Amino acid sequence: MSGSPIPAPDSAAVTCPFCGLVCDDLVVTGTPDAPEVRASGCPTAANGYGQRARSDGPRIAGRPATLAEAAAEAARLLRGARRPLFGGLATDVEGARAAGRLADRTGGVLDHMNGAAAVRNLLVLQDGGWITTTLSEIRNRCDLLILAGGDVTPRFPRFFERTIGARETLFGDRPGCDVVFLGHGPSKGTTLRGAVEVIGCDVPALGDAFGVMRALLAGRPVDADAAAGMPIAVWRKLVERMRTATYGVIAWAAPDFDFPHAELTIQALCELVKDLNRATRFSGLPLGGSDGDVTADAVALWQTGFGLRAAFGGGAPEQDLHLNATERLLATGEADVLVWIASINATRLPPATTTPTIVLGHAAMTVAREPAVFIPVGTPGVDHAGHLFRTDRVVALPLFPVRSSTLPSVAQALSAIEAALGGGG
Amino acid sequence: MLLRLAGGRVYDPAHGVNGEIRDLYVRDGRIVAAPGPDERVDQSYDLTGRVVMAGAIDMHTHIGGGKLNIARAMLPEDHRSDPRARSPLTRGSCGHAAPGTFATGYRYAEMGYTACFEPAILPVNARQAHLEMGDTPMVDKGGYVMLGSDDFLLRLMASGAEQRLINDYVAWTLHATRCIGIKVVNPGGISAFKFNQRRFELDEKHGFYGVTPRDILRVLSRAVHELGVPHPLHVHSSNLGLPGNADTTLGTIQAAEGLPIHLTHIQFHSYGTEGARKFSSAAARIAEAINATPNASCDVGQILFGQTVTASGDSMTQHRNSGLASPKKFVVMDIECDAGCGVLPFKYRDTNFVNALQWAIGLEVFLLVTDPWRVFLTTDHPNGAPFTTYPHLIRLLMDRTFRNERLGLVNADARALSTLASIDREYSLYEIAILTRAAPARILGITDLGHLGTGATADITVYRDEPDRERMFSTPEYVFKDGELIVRNGAVVKVTWGRYHTVEPAYDRGIERRLKEHFDRYQTIRAASLQISRDEMAAFGHGAEVRTHPCRRGTP
Q1: Is the CB of A301 less than 8 angstroms away from the CB of B72?
Q2: How far is CA B283 from the centre of its chain?
Q3: Domain residue ranges in chain A
Q4: Which end of chain B is more exposed for a tag (fewer CB within 10 A), N or C?
Q5: Measured in whole angstroms, how far is the alpha carbon of residue A170 from the centre of its chain?
Q6: Which fold has domain A55-114+291-380+405-421?
Q7: How far apart are CA B173 and CA B188, in angstroms?
Q8: Is there a common fold for A55-114+291-380+405-421 and A119-287?
């Protein structure tokens, strides 16, 4: 159970749950009500730790209730449900495990609040695969970093600092790493060592550019003047840089590819990376992991064989990346109860729906429409211990509470609901 | 509560018991001596005519960790065709080649297995591997942690560090990652691939560090020995899958310089270059070398025909083979200046010359290695075949007629190049009990598993003695875990969670300062974040016991 804190091996440093980088070097001080990031911070961490609790305790239809009462009411709703949707899933490994257990038991569906973005990558993984790398490899090896879709620091503020920011590497001093932005350039105040190029291309048409670069790399003729709004010469020059880099990396954040069939763009990118690896080393880096999306997918994968958007209604899990989308299940009324889990960011509200909703929400959450049940829950890494996967799907970091808290973890709240469901299947 | 298992035919090679009719007694999860006349037996099973063995142990099976989860993510088609519905007792899960952890645990137990060891845990990914194994019900588990392409070790070696420091680092890694053994995969090759080296021979220098695979094998086998880790260095040799790699394998055995060495999935490393297609069996040479080298052991990594997925830390090899993926998709990753991985689905076909010869080579190794204590029954799940094929593999080993029938069905050119048809040997039940019980427990240094003597953990499997050994080993009649009945007639009747097995060799903690500095300077997590606490482990495993086995320091 995540509620019993595991003593931090090095209590001076704190691990931050508020984006997919899951930095483990923060210094957090202040009072329990107002923790403050004193070192290794960023705007996202400052906002995250600064979320002030508004909720006093659980509510049933807006009326105060005990956790046991709220759990009993949630269990009553789930008992009557034919296809409950366990959505949001912004929680730690322990919460994701508990959600999987409950979804299995109630014939539910698992989806994440970032599911639409995650699916863009999953479709590529299922269809063609990819060649990727992780943060420490970039930190030490990368000499050309390309950001497909533009700057990622609005979502991952310390990305440059933690990857290409360091001069000293395992393999000698790096004067700088060239950075190319495909889309919008660096945010104000971003400092980068090394040459910076901004290719202000049309991001939704980037798939064409990747296709052109694959053709150029293969020595095939290209019968076009431009791709993604930029002359072919631009792409010719870029692919030549990619080909001659020692260890190039192309990163993308799937949420930034918010256009129809973005998976085809990502696949074109990944196939270009595969082509480059015939002769040199070059890697992709899918950026995600925020709100526990990589965590929720990883846990569902190992438990069931399927990841997000798996449904348990038929007894055995079945995944459908399109049919089991939160938006669709709510719009069609197929989901008859929504369990919305949002323990990390108080602004990730449950979708507007008339479907009876049980919210396991951050204690600072203000809901627009009072749900059937609201249980304020603690945040992993703030109120209780837990584990989160980092963006690269490899490193699972332990999180430790920075304050003592009476809020239940998502795992505890879900276990209370499960217990209230009673024995048997 | 005293349990009697009465009148079964017992195979317990650890005690030289070869099919004798015996009663076994179990109390508080352990096997106990026959009770006195006054003691009351609470429950008795009549096992007349049944075959009784300890619970089986898979000492090399990829059941948990990052590359398996990538394989799961890549293969929805694998899962759709093999669902496992929930029951009031068990969770819904699925998957044939890359099953979910629940399906994995249930199916292993339903085949009479009670312990599984994950052989390729990357230090930075150890927490995930243990989380996944923690969610694998029914069986005990443990892992081998991968070193040999990590920049910390390669830097130490390149700087000419003393063996003592390397030993400290190896011991720290075992502690930090809560593993029971050390694995090396394509020694140095995963790192070399990051520098764009595409092949890495045993005596070739790493382009940046200047060390050779042989150097890495020498220092790691020595570290494992001097730290007193019971399990020998677990080696996935260089040049996996390449024609002619038998020479590399023989060189790898020599690289241990007389210290214990375990060569894993040796089938993939027993290839010659004879014949028109320049691909031939070198199983006889390899088996001869194993037979002549008492410090060497191997598991086979048998391939069996059908669809599977290959998941390996050997990114260099997996990338080289990526064009062979079926269906056509693959993942290759460079990971954290620590290691790497590669995953590609693969379909072994009996009509294919290479695949058919691989099948024959694996069986030749099984049948030509004379000491059953030094050859282990594995398919390198899922790389050679899913673990659910074990009963079929056992029949191939025990039934020469069946084996030759199958041989008659494979690619004729491969058949012509194999000596398999001329090998008469049939494994006995006693030998199968060695391969799958007694020997794995012994080579892991776990003294209370794999046998049925007084004091042993009461993990016991009971089979009907059927002439069709595949049928027999597919559905045991009873499986007991810690003395409790968990499987009856091949179906789970009680869910348990097993325990973790680890070792914690002593080391000089001075190494921690170096590691902290290394991580702070070059890595993107702190060294402290890599370390897994015992409490975490227990929580991962649903309250599982974390059992630490003793290390007996060898002479430096």
Answers
A1: yes
A2: 20
A3: 55-114+291-380+405-421, 119-287
A4: C
A5: 29
A6: Rossmann fold (3.40.50)
A7: 17
A8: no
Peptide bond into A5 cis (omega under 30): no
Whole-angstrom CA distances from A396 to A33, A240, A340, B477 are 27, 36, 24, 40
Output the pLDDT for position A296: 98
| Strand duo B50-54 + B93-94: pairing | unpaired
Model confidence pLDDT, tens digit, residues B208-219:
999 999 999 999
The CA distances from residue A93 to A358, A411, B324, in Å, are: 20, 9, 35
Give the pLDDT score at A3. Answer: 35
CATH architecture of A119-287: 3-Layer(aba) Sandwich (3.40)
Looking at CA atoms only, how far is residue A364 from chain B in angstroms? Answer: 29
Name which of A130, A133, A305 is nearest B93 (Cβ-Cβ): A305
* Closest to A310 (Cα-Cα) out of A81, A302, A412: A302
- Within 8 A of B193 by CB-CB distance, chain A residues are 281
User: For residue A60, what are the β-bridge partners?
Assistant: A63, A373
pLDDT in tens, A41-95: 999 999 999 999 887 899 999 999 999 999 999 999 999 999 999 999 999 999 9
- Whether the Cβ atoms of residue B100 and residue B94 lie closer than 8 Å to each other: yes
Ramachandran bin of B257, using left for φ above 0, alpha for ψ from -120 to 50, beta for the remaining angles: left
For residue B133, the chain A residue with the least C-alpha distance is A302
Q: Is there a contact between A277 and B319 if contact means CB atoms under 8 Å apart?
A: yes
Q: Of B472, B437, B482, nearest to B57 (Cα)?
A: B437
In whole angstroms, give the CA distance from residue B309 to residue B98.
7
* Residue A97 amino acid letter: R
- Name the residue facing A280 among B102, B196, B533 (closest C-beta): B196
Q: Do B72 and A1 touch (CB under 8 A)?
A: no
- Judge whether B373 and B335 are in contact, CB under 8 Å: no
Distance, CA of B59 to CA of B56 (rounded, Å): 10
Q: Kindly report, residue by residue over B23-43, the tens digit of the pLDDT.
A: 999 999 999 999 999 999 999
Containing H/E element for B117?
A: strand B113-121
- Per-residue DSSP letters for B27-74? ETTEEEPPPPTTSPPSEEEE-TTEEEEEPEEESS---SSHHHHHHHHH
Strand, coil or helix: A64: strand
Q: Which residues of B touch A109 (CB under 8 A)?
A: none
Which of A264, A265, A284, A266 is closest to A276 using CA atoms? A284
* Candidates A122, A274, A395, partner chain B, best to mutate (most B CBs within 10 A): A395
> Which residue in A15, A131, A281 is closest to B196 by CB distance?
A281
Determine, for residues A131 and B84 on separate chains, whether the beta-carbon distance falls below 8 Å.
no
The per-residue pLDDT of chain B, averaged, comes to 97
Do residue A247 and residue B194 have CB atoms under 8 angstroms apart? yes
* Run of H or E residues at A298: helix A293-304
Alpha helices in B198-245 (DSSP H): 213-227
The DSSP code for A255 is G
- Residue written as token pair 């970032």: A114
The pLDDT value given to residue B556: 55
Q: What is the ipTM of this complex?
A: 0.97
Tell me how many residue pairs between chain A and chain B have CB atoms under 8 A apart: 211
pLDDT reported for residue B391: 98
**How far from each other are the two terminal CA atoms of chain B, in whole angstroms?**
47
Vertex A357 angle, CA A353 and A363, to 5°: 110
Partners of B38 in beta bridges: none
- Determine, for residues B536 and A6 on separate chains, whether the beta-carbon distance falls below 8 Å: yes
Whether A381 shows a pLDDT value over 50: the answer reads yes
A250-280 pLDDT, tens digit each: 999 999 999 999 999 999 999 999 999 999 9
In which residue are the tokens 């001659």 written? A244
Chain B hits for A6, CB-CB cut-off 8 Å, are: 533, 535-536
**Both tokens of residue B357?**
């010869």
